[in-house]
Design goal:
The protein is of the alpha+beta class and 433 residues long. Helix content is 22%, strand content 23%. The protein has 7 helices and 19 strands. Strand 4 (40-45) and strand 5 (50-54) form a beta hairpin. The longest helix has 17 residues, at 412-428.
Length: 433
């Protein structure tokens, strides 16, 4: 008696709240190979993080339904496992029936990122007709923008107008509005500007974009094309915060925690976001949402590139809680142990220049947020303070801050008030440790 097959279809999982699809990186199994439950099947790549997908059951892999580099929507099947097969086939077991021949694969498409496909849908651009200018023919945001309105006009068949009746007097032609030339966008293949070709020279080193670097590049281009961003700056005297830090950093160190200025800046930012909810928002098609949670993303530099893990509900944490969260996500980011959920759901971002930073700089908004705070290097400077009615000079630690905000949602008065409030909290050292 032939037992019915117990086939399990493995689907693309939901790897994070904002992830709607994943890319097949590398298959770790092949058709006919036995696999145990929880053994890795495939590497899944998303715009948040890379991870291995474990097998939900034990059995033999009978079909691979997606190839490497294929982009698969969440919930779609990627392979099939026969649970009734044994881990090692016996000699007297019947040979498995050949898998049905797969339908011919569709014509290959140029690689694209999720943000490029979203832009193409919004602009009603058919990616099949877009020539990619990125590495390996990859379609980038500039290619989509250049394709808008670049389709040739349909051909028209010339017709000979009928002759006027003999008795009719000729009519003067109707006045026509002057024709204006179509404005040039000035960018992309259809504009007047052309990037000069690269001419190799001795000593040049070509460094291919890594996958993460390409995602970052696409994200930054999309953000600059989407958000009308404005940058505003402020200077902050950190004297009182520095005194508070010096009083407690020894105890924090005994507890295995570093008490950094970044923890204070995150705490001040989270409190200010509660008071200025327009900065804790995201834009929809014809509205914007003031988000209920305050989840602050912090930029962490790793060997594989920049990542932005998230500190959730930062407005509810003390300085100790924030310091612990910063240490945790930074260590896991550098060791490659972040999960997609660690990188999802941020409502605002803070960028720290590190120990070898610079005076100040404006950061690009991390979409879909409407703002990002860039911290400058802390330096000791001579400042003027008031003491018993007199102006005196003193040496204090001073930091510049730059707020980049989306002018579609945030007006200058709110942005200035928000940045002022962050500086005020830091200058007064108004924190709960």
């Amino acid at each position: 008696m032939v037992l019915p097959l117990m086939a399990t279809k493995v689907t693309m999982p939901q790897l994070g709240e904002s992830v709607v699809e994943g890319t097949i990186g590398k298959w770790l199994v092949s058709v006919g190979q036995s696999v145990g439950k929880d053994e890795p099947l495939v590497e899944i790549l998303t715009d948040k993080a890379d991870s291995e997908l474990p097998s939900p059951v034990s059995g033999v892999v009978t079909q691979l339904l997606a190839g490497e580099d294929d982009i698969v929507a969440v919930g779609d099947a990627i392979c099939e496992i026969d649970e009734s097969a044994q881990a090692s086939a016996t000699e007297d077991a019947p040979a498995p029936a050949p898998a049905p021949e797969a339908p011919p694969a569709p014509a290959p498409k140029a690689p694209t990122s999720p943000s490029v496909r979203k832009l193409a849908r919004e602009k009603e651009v058919d990616l099949a007709g877009v020539q990619g200018s990125g590495d390996g023919g990859r379609i980038v945001h500039g290619d989509v923008m250049a394709a808008i309105g670049s389709s040739p006009a349909p051909e028209r068949t010339a017709t000979v107008p009928p002759a006027p009746p003999p008795a009719a007097a000729p009519k003067a032609p109707a006045p026509q509005a002057p024709q204006r030339p179509a404005p040039s966008r000035g960018t992309g293949p259809t504009g007047a500007f052309r990037v000069p070709p690269y001419v190799p020279k001795d000593g040049d080193e070509i460094v291919p974009f890594t996958r993460r670097r390409r995602i970052i590049a696409d994200h930054m281009v999309y953000s600059k094309q989407t958000a009308p961003d404005v940058v505003t700056f402020a200077e902050c005297d950190l004297y009182r915060t520095a005194v508070l830090r010096d009083q407690h950093k020894g105890q924090f160190k005994k507890d295995g925690l570093g008490l950094t200025y970044l923890a204070f800046a995150i705490a001040a930012t989270a409190r200010a976001l509660r008071e200025f909810p327009e900065l804790n928002a995201r834009v929809l098609d014809d509205a914007f949402v003031k988000l209920a949670e305050v989840n602050v993303g912090i930029a962490v530099d790793t060997d594989q590139g920049l990542v932005v893990p998230v500190i959730r509900n930062a407005d509810e944490l003390t300085i100790r809680g924030i310091a612990r969260a910063v240490a945790d996500v930074a260590e896991r980011a550098r060791s490659g142990n972040l999960t997609p959920n660690d990188l999802a759901g941020k409502t605002f971002a803070v960028s720290n220049p590190g120990r070898r930073g610079n005076l100040v700089g404006g950061a690009i908004i991390s979409q879909p947020n409407v703002g990002i705070l860039r911290l400058g290097t802390i330096v000791k400077r001579v400042v003027v303070i008031e003491h018993e009615g007199e102006d005196l000079m003193a040496i204090h630690p001073v930091m510049h801050m730059a707020l980049t905000y989306d002018h579609r949602v945030v007006d200058g008065v709110h942005a200035n008030g928000f940045l002022y409030r962050i500086g005020e909290i830091l200058e007064y050292g108004d924190f709960e440790l």
